[in-house]
């Protein structure tokens, strides 16, 4: 039954208009914009870390070491994200989703713009690297409260029969941000020389993210608090210490959610960041050529998010995700054969297309499943902690680990790494019950 019917019944003695849901358009944009900024910022950083930061911030070491050091700074934000999920989860479950999301968006946006203004190593030496890591850390704190709040804006406004589809709104921000970031780098590299890109071109995407932040701020200021949180407030069921409660009552769900989501991060940054480095250094592709192939495959990613979320509403979240995890294990052992030879456009395109099809299937239902694992009173904290721990387990050092594995053990070891993450996801899925029919108002 639609949760809004429950709300109307509960508040017959009150002005029920106060508990109306926002329009679908408002919910979609408010939940999608933050994830779009998250992936825009993170992929802009990932691209810059793979292609430009080794020379901008680590010019005095060998290219291989510079790349590894540069990719390590990529992981700094992921380490900070759980701290952000603790802080924003606490306030999101205590004072509401809306206000918390606005603050996290501004913190994330300001730190990203500051990265675009940083001096290089040639200007400040090691201080430039320290400032880069500091901005990246603050960015991670802001991001720690972003996804879970966006997912709750979507799912807590959704009819019960379409919760996975609504949960796909923040997930669609991922391919949107990815496409915008990729497209901007593609245009910059088309019209600027390599020297200009190293000098100032890499800064443009970080500064341009301010436009997305302003749009996001405007949309989120206009939205209401979610009806389910308002219901919890009215019934005096808002938790004063959500972090204490979530670790005491929902620690199993935290572990399960972390392992289920981790593989999506590992897959995404294997496809989008590590493969970019590998293709441009080992397979003979230019950065621009590979970005163009990524932009084409990201459209498939977006389509599969919607398709898989629709299936998750019909078949259930567990069945859909178990299908994707099983397919990922097979893909993990086969994809190294697609990354062979020099400038093999056909096989590399197939690698990207299959990878992003599986990414879409694995990522779409997560927007509903993670919030459904937790009760309303700790939902922001629980889903946020699980999601951001997954970012550490699955993504923080994925480009670095994959680069090291490929250099020392060959590309098949990268496939084995992905397979282990997919198996962990599959085992975790086997331990949970189907969440499609849970009472989301509790």
From TrEMBL:
PROSITE patterns: MFS (PS50850), SUGAR_TRANSPORT_1 (PS00216)
GO MF assignments: symporter activity
Annotated Major facilitator superfamily (MFS) profile domain residues: 27-436
Domain of life: Bacteria
Membrane topology designation: Multi-pass membrane protein
Pfam families per record: Sugar_tr
UniProt entry keywords in alphabetical sequence: Cell membrane, Membrane, Symport, Transmembrane, Transmembrane helix, Transport
Subcellular location: Cell membrane
Alphabetized InterPro entries for the sequence: MFS_dom (IPR020846), MFS_sugar_transport-like (IPR005828), MFS_trans_sf (IPR036259), Sugar_transporter_CS (IPR005829)
Entry-linked SUPFAM superfamilies: MFS general substrate transporter
Entry keyword annotation includes Transmembrane: yes
Transmembrane segments: 27-53, 65-88, 100-118, 124-143, 164-188, 200-219, 254-278, 290-308, 320-339, 345-373, 385-405, 411-432
Listed Gene3D superfamilies: MFS general substrate transporter like domains (1.20.1250.20)
Record function comment: May be a proton symporter involved in the uptake of osmolytes such as proline and glycine betaine.
Family named by the database record: Belongs to the major facilitator superfamily. Metabolite:H+ Symporter (MHS) family (TC 2.A.1.6) family.
Name listed for the protein in its UniProt record: Putative proline/betaine transporter
Phylogenetic classification of the source organism: Bacteria, Bacillati, Bacillota, Bacilli, Lactobacillales
């Amino acid at each position: 039954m639609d949760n809004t019917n429950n709300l109307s019944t509960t508040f017959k003695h009150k002005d029920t208009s106060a508990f109306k849901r926002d329009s679908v358009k408002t919910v979609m944009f408010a939940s999608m914009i933050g994830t779009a900024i998250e992936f825009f910022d993170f992929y802009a950083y990932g691209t810059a870390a793979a292609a430009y930061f080794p020379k901008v911030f680590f010019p005095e070491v060998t290219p291989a070491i510079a790349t590894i050091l540069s990719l390590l700074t990529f992981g700094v934000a992921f380490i900070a994200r759980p701290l952000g999920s603790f802080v924003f989860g606490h306030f999101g479950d205590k004072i509401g989703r809306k206000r918390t999301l606005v603050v996290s968006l501004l913190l994330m946006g300001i730190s990203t713009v500051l990265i675009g203004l940083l001096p290089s190593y040639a200007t400040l030496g090691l201080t430039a690297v320290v400032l880069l890591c500091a901005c990246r850390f603050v960015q991670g704190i802001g991001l720690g409260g972003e996804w879970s709040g966006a997912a709750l804006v979507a799912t807590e406004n959704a009819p019960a029969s379409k919760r996975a589809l609504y949960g796909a709104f923040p997930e669609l921000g991922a391919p949107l941000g990815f496409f915008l970031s990729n497209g901007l780098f593609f245009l910059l590299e088309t019209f600027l020389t390599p020297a200009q890109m190293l000098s100032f071109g890499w800064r443009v995407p970080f500064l341009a993210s301010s436009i997305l932040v302003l749009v996001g701020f405007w949309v989120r200021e206009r939205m209401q608090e979610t009806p389910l949180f308002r219901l919890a407030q009215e019934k005096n069921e808002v938790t004063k210490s959500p972090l204490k409660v979530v670790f005491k009552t929902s620690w199993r769900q935290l572990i399960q959610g972390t392992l289920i989501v981790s593989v999506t991060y590992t897959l995404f940054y294997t496809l989008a960041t590590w493969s970019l480095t590998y293709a441009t250094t080992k397979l003979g592709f230019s950065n621009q050529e590979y970005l163009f192939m990524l932009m084409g495959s990201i459209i498939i990613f977006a389509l599969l998010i919607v398709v898989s979320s629709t299936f998750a509403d019909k078949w259930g979240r567990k069945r859909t995700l178990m299908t994707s995890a099983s397919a990922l294990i097979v893909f993990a052992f086969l994809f190294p054969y697609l990354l062979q030879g020099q400038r093999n456009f056909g096989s590399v395109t197939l690698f990207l297309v299959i990878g992003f099809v599986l990414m879409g299937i694995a990522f779409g239902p997560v927007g509903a499943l993670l919030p459904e694992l937790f009760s309303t009173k700790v939902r922001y904290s629980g889903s946020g902690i699980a999601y951001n721990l997954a970012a550490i387990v699955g993504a923080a050092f994925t480009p670095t680990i994959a680069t090291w594995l490929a250099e020392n053990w060959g590309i098949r070891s990268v496939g084995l790494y992905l397979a282990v993450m997919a198996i962990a996801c599959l085992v975790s899925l086997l331990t949970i019950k189907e969440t499609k029919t849970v009472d989301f108002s509790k």
